[in-house]
Design a protein that fits this description.
Low-confidence stretches: 1-11
Strand order of the largest sheet: 2-3-4-1-5
Strand content: 5-15%
Number of domains: 4
Number of helices: 21
Largest sheet: 5 strands, parallel
Shape: globular
Number of strands: 7
CATH topology of the largest domain: Rossmann fold
Distance between the termini: 85 Å
Structural class: alpha/beta
CATH architecture of the largest domain: 3-Layer(aba) Sandwich
CATH superfamily of the largest domain: P-loop containing nucleotide triphosphate hydrolases
Length: 442
């Protein structure tokens, strides 16, 4: 493979816009400034030609493949791509043999493996000896957490870099570049498009550059040329191209907070119908489903709490489902959790209790831990009285001792005050019983 043609070979007139506009160098690369900004670690490694094997972990369309190609171009290494979906042990051995031969002649091989998490353990192990000998520089791309999907031996020999979803501003840069570029983009067409429309494309793309550029191309192809040949990409054209109505939504503006507030307050008021409606408004307008799931996890403890301990399980399960499947499949998982949380009995006792404890904690940061409940791992600490008077709960009837565990200034302070709602009434009975056992004369 000729190094000068790494990108040119892939750029064909009939290729999708996203492929044609693939950045060719670090200056064209957009986003990931935490890794590629001035004096950042990955940029330094690339520019000094000190690349070692690495795993690029991030969502689709953030530049994992592009970055691997740029690295290969910069390091003048032979670039090989490998698909974990289509390849097996035989193909791995063939590629490794070729890499071994190249190394004898002083040329390195950069092996890029897309969706590396799809390889099983034995397939992953097959790369290890070649990585250790330096026959290949392995760059794996994955959308899944490497800690769970890659074996420890491979991880220990690779540096993991986390790539973030592209921001709306990043996507706007890419879209405007594609509209203007006459060689690889849409610049030879007479395209007229307002920033508001490009912004909506950015919102709908949820940090995915490939989706943004393909949406722009689809919208351009959907336009009917005007008399002078102009292709006007309007909001109506975009709606037709996406086959969905573009909703008033700005993830960084007021409407974002209005909608999440409406969703939260509908669940708090036990209105499951309104909760599902506001959920749909957010998801269909391009909101990150994981953001919604995280808000429901918070809600499960803030507004339901121990009135229904299973609420938190439902919310966490919904988050996991959204992470595994993404949109649109996860919408029904989030709806299930939203309905469950809406119909669950409500208690804010945990929320109120924590805030009260937080206030006291901030005002008593210098308050020492009572000696009798301090840890005493050394002789000096024991001589200083650490642990003196400690009462081991398991040595007492009912597993509770008459021992104060709060600082003296907060003695007998109550933070968690259970309500009578749902299952919390049982926690209230239990708490009252324990307090009587602890202080029988009270």
């Amino acid at each position: 493979m000729q190094q000068g043609s790494l990108f040119e070979n892939d750029i064909k007139i009939n290729s999708p816009l996203a492929d044609r506009m693939r950045p060719r160098n670090l200056d064209e690369f957009v986003g990931q400034q935490h890794l590629l900004g001035k004096d950042r670690v990955l940029r330094k490694l690339i520019e000094s030609d000190s690349i070692t094997s690495m795993i690029l972990w991030g969502p689709p369309g953030v530049g994992k493949t592009t970055l691997a190609r740029i690295i290969a171009e910069k390091t003048r290494a032979h670039f090989e791509t490998f698909s974990a979906v289509l390849s097996g042990i035989k193909e791995i051995k063939d590629v490794m043999k070729q890499a071994e031969e190249r190394r004898r002649y002083g040329r390195r091989t950069l092996l890029f493996i897309d969706e590396i998490h799809r390889f099983n353990k034995s397939q992953q192990d097959a790369f290890l000896p070649y990585v250790e000998k330096g026959d290949i520089i392995l760059i794996g791309a994955t959308t899944e957490n490497p800690s769970f999907e890659l074996n420890s031996a491979l991880l220990s020999r690779s540096k993991v870099f986390v790539l973030n979803p592209l921001s709306t501003d990043d996507l706007m840069v890419l879209l405007k570049r594609a509209v203007a570029d006459r060689d690889r983009g849409l610049g030879k067409l007479k395209i007229k498009v307002e920033d508001d429309v490009l912004y909506k494309i950015s919102i709908f793309s949820s940090g995915d550059a490939r989706m943004a550029l393909n949406t722009l191309e689809l919208a351009a192809l959907s336009c009917r040329p005007e008399k002078d040949g102009t292709l006007s990409i309007t909001e109506k054209v975009l709606e037709e191209a996406l086959q969905k109505r573009t909703l008033l939504y700005d993830k960084k503006g007021e409407e974002h907070y209005n909608l999440i507030s409406a969703f939260h307050k509908s669940m708090r008021n036990s209105d499951s119908d309104a909760a599902v409606y506001w959920l749909a408004r957010m998801l269909e307008a391009g909101e990150d489903p994981l953001y919604v799931a995280r808000r429901m996890i918070r809600f499960a403890s803030e507004d339901v709490g121990l009135a229904d301990p299973r609420a938190l399980e439902q919310a966490v399960a919904a988050y996991q489902a959204a992470h595994f499947t993404g949109m649109p499949e996860c919408a029904v998982n989030l709806a299930q959790a939203a309905v469950y949380l809406s119909l669950a009995p409500k208690s804010n006792a945990l929320y109120v209790g924590y805030n009260a404890a937080k206030k006291d904690a901030l005002n008593t940061l210098a308050e020492p831990v009572p000696l009798h409940i301090r840890n005493a791992p050394t002789r000096l600490m024991k001589e200083l009285g650490y642990g003196d008077g400690y009462k081991y709960a398991h040595d007492f009837e009912n597993k509770i001792a008459d021992m104060e565990c709060l600082p003296d200034s907060l003695k007998d302070k109550k933070y968690y005050v259970p309500t009578e709602e749902g299952e919390e009434r049982e926690f209230k009975k239990r708490k009252e019983k324990l307090e009587k056992l602890k202080n029988p004369g009270a």
